[in-house]
Amino acid sequence: MSGRDPGMGRSLTRTMLVAILAVALVGVGATWWQVVDASRLTTSPDDAANVAAARTVVRGVIRDRDGRVLAASKRDANGEPYRVYPTDAMTAVIGYASRRYGSAGIERAFDAELTGRRDPDPIQDILDHLDPSRTKKGNDLRTSLSLPLQKLAVQLLGNDAGAVVLLDPRTGEVLVDASTPTYDPNQIADPTADPAYFAALRKDPTSPLLPRATLGLYTPGSVFKIVTAVAALASGAITPKTTFPKQPRSEKSGLLVDGYRVKDGHHDFTQPKALALSEATEVSCNIFYALAGLATGGADLVRWAAAMGFGGSIPYDLPTEVSQVTSGKGSAPGGFVDRVELANAAYGQGEVLATPLQMALVAAAVANDGVIMRPRVVTAVVSPSGAVTPRPAEVWVRAFGPDVAKPIREAMTLAVEGRYGELFTSGAKVPGVLTAGKSGTAEIGGNGEPNSWFIGFAPADDPQIAIAVVVEHGGSGATRASPIAGQLMRAYFAQAAQ
Amino acid sequence: MTAAAAVAPRGIVRIRPRLRRREAMLLLIVCAVLGVGGLSLGMTTTDTVTVAGWQLLVIYGGALVAVHLAQSLAGRRTDQVLLPTVGLLGGIGLLLMIRLPQDLVAQDLGSLHLGLAQLQTVWLCLGLAVVGVLAVAVRSDAWLRMYKYTWALAGLTLLVLTFVFGIDEGGARLTLVVGPFSGQPSELLKVILVIFLAGYLAEYRPLLATERTVIGPIRLPPLPYLVPMLAMVALGMGVVIVQRDLGAALLFYIVFLVLLYIATGRTAWVGLGIALGAVASVALYLAFPHVRERVSVWLDPFADPLGAGFQIVQALHAFARGGLFGVGLGAGLPEIAGNLPIPAVHTDFPLAAIGEEMGLAAVLGILALYLVVLERGLRIAAAAADPFRALLAAGLALVVGAQALVIAAGDLRLMPLTGITLPFVSYGGSSILANSLVVGLLLAISDRGIEAPAPPRTRGPVMRALRRGRG
């Protein structure tokens, strides 16, 4: 055997072809990161070049709705600026900006504005890019947040994990975006602080770094009945006067849906009368809502929930988690597995999951005649020279009409002000102000206490604020969430009166 | 029978200098590229017209020319493209080391304090010396061909030594320290493995292509296939378990499978090898948390951008900043509080730095250079006098090419990152010396003047018996 081997020549040629293919594949990968997907990475606040550039820039000041400072800058021993925060009640929304750990919250979402990387004035922005020698100063941010209300929210949540969203349904301005447990952003932003603090936060089983109002997904329980009411009325499945003869008959033993028993047990005092929307909402009748949901059908329930934001992300100033009516694994209309899941979903159990922000927007939609304003925190960007670029209110969606909103507003008013209603929402009522709302006691499986919920708005006849409160393992809605909502709304109106 | 045997009469050593025109031209281009690169870097970092690290570049260029001259004077008819190709790769790596902070790696030799680029220059010159000596001095391959089991034993010993005496660095037991010397044995191991596989496959090739092992009704590939196949899987898993070195294990296995294919031309057996490898990978994934972590970081590095995903995320950002033509040598890689965003930029991620400062164009260029190395190796294989040399040449080229592809794909998040070096570009003595060994051997067997292969030895008694047994 000598000279060239005929058998190997072919294998060698093929090996070369495979090698060329492999190199081409890696080349395509390089092209992806360096050209196709490059701008997403290079504009990110995590990009090392941006982080390095930001070190020398004094970030703008973030203020609350009354001009109180929420985030400011100091200089360290080397003259390099770093962030200081007067409170730890705001961290869920303001976040932090750190040289070591990057950024979070508004500090992250508005990094370009705060560091002056992006000028709110488009012409100025182009000039800045043409002349890089221009000294960059950060822009200030004006927010709609209320420091005293947010502090109160955190204080009321106390040692419990939970979240509060309070917003103006007429403008979408968010006054409270609170999440507990909180953490101290100064210990992250201060370059001399102990790194163990952040490391411990990351490992903490109570997830303090999770902004629960926007990224926390909870089973909503009975507060979701408002969504079902919207879907049932808007789709024409029920009218405000509709009653279900089956409902009073089933109160004792439960409503049988395909072999599954929907239990109620909350309101022996109303039977044997068949309830319509208002009374059913007042006493939080699971059976009424299960029947209303079944009458509406899965497809319409999902469709009308989607009109209010379910199934998609909310165009908020911060990233939001996607709320869902069903996990969509089933083949029944709307993606439900069967009628049992639909019946359970209609009163907020089953596979329903929602963020506190989403539920606050449901309340806001009812309060504002079905029109949901885009929720926002930052109301204006103020340049170093003092030029103010406002971020005005804008309509996000017109989810449903006033004819749907009106009966639900009345039902929710009854749920707080009514004779039976106040038993379910005790503490939510604002003295002297007509208050509307709905409490929820969300069973979460296992042996733990249920999550305590409340959503509502006030004044019921001319809503100025809408609210959502969730307290993890807080028990029934009336135990924890309703009083917290009541106190916050009271504080708001007390402040407004001054 | 062969032409070479007729030309070179034994006993008379004649040295006839020979002009190597093509190599000279290519080296001229390499030197020009490095000069321009140094000038660009110097002008960016100092704002004056200077060539950054010109002394080091001159030393390196001189060493390249010296290897060229040594081969010319000795009249060697070796491949003329390989040296300039790896010379350019090494030069680009050296430019990068000149550009990086010099205290990334530092060593004191007596009163001499050597920084990153100076050490890299030392390693590159030592590597070129290895290339030169092998290309000029090796006139026979008998020492490689005859002792394949001795080589295998040496390789296994190296592995065991690493396990027993190795020290853990960055979660992997890769480094062996003997007295004042330290090195990464897996780099040497890959060369030894190729030598052994070339010898083994060349010997059992005819058998592999025809025979079957029959156990009752089951027809399996022949025993000479099965035994090394299982041994390789075991070796690969051993390297992962013992050294926690996923990259080396993957590299060994790829080289093995491709050599097996080249030797036999049977895709089905390669397929079987891939299937076996996949099963082994799954087993390793389930059994070892460090393997699982690598995979989860690869699937979503942005899930933990400050922890496990930090380096790869920063590398992707660096690639993105580079764009088509880069931000310019010396203008990228922002330091944050005196730290580079990618701590292992000089070892695992030189491609990211090149991608940032010289752009996609340079990344594609570097990939093309490795393709040239592969092409030269396979060409040498195709022209080789016998199967052993062919398999040796192909295997050596594959070791370099596959390693480059594995780390490049890891840097670019096309596959899980494995901590192996980018051959000739990355910082590191073990890597540069081992890859120089590869190039030196490739040059030696490419020489048409090398001694003709010895006649094939008779097969071992065991295999003879096995063959007889089945008729």
**Quick one: biggest sheet of chain A?**
6 strands, mixed
Gyration radius of chain A (Cα, Å) is 27 Å
Counting helices, strands and paired strands, the structural category of chain B is mainly alpha
Strand order of the largest sheet of chain A: 3-2-1-6-12-13
The average pLDDT value of chain A, as a whole number, equals 89
The succession of helices and strands of chain B, N to C, reads HHHHEEHHHEEEHEEHHHHHHHHH
Report the uncertain regions of chain A: 1-5
Number of domains of chain B: 1
* The CATH homologous superfamily of the domain at 221-378 and 394-497 in chain A: DD-peptidase/beta-lactamase superfamily
Short key terms for the protein model shown above:
heterodimer; A: alpha+beta; Beta-lactamase; disordered N terminus; B: 471 residues; mainly alpha; 7 strands; 5% strand
SSE topology:
The complex is a heterodimer of chains A (498) and B (471).
Chain A: H1 6-36, H2 38-42, H3 48-56, E1 62-63, E2 69-75, E3 81-84, H4 91-94, E4 97-98, E5 102-103, H5 105-109, H6 111-114, H7 122-130, E6 140-143, H8 147-157, E7 162-167, E8 174-180, H9 186-189, H10 195-203, H11 212-215, H12 225-234, H13 246-250, E9 255-257, E10 260-262, H14 277-282, H15 286-296, H16 298-307, H17 339-346, H18 356-367, E11 371-373, E12 378-382, E13 388-390, E14 395-398, H19 402-417, H20 421-424, E15 436-442, E16 451-458, E17 465-471, H21 481-497
Parallel strand pairs in A: 1-6
Antiparallel strand pairs in A: 1-2, 2-3, 4-5, 6-12, 7-8, 7-17, 9-10, 11-14, 12-13, 15-16, 16-17
Helix pairs in contact in A: 8-21, 12-15, 12-16, 12-19, 15-17
Chain B: H1 3-7, H2 21-46, H3 54-73, H4 82-99, E1 107-109, E2 112-114, H5 116-137, H6 142-145, H7 148-165, E3 167-169, E4 172-178, E5 181-183, H8 185-210, E6 213-215, E7 218-220, H9 223-243, H10 246-264, H11 267-287, H12 289-299, H13 310-322, H14 350-382, H15 387-411, H16 429-446, H17 461-470
Antiparallel strand pairs in B: 1-2, 3-4, 4-5, 6-7
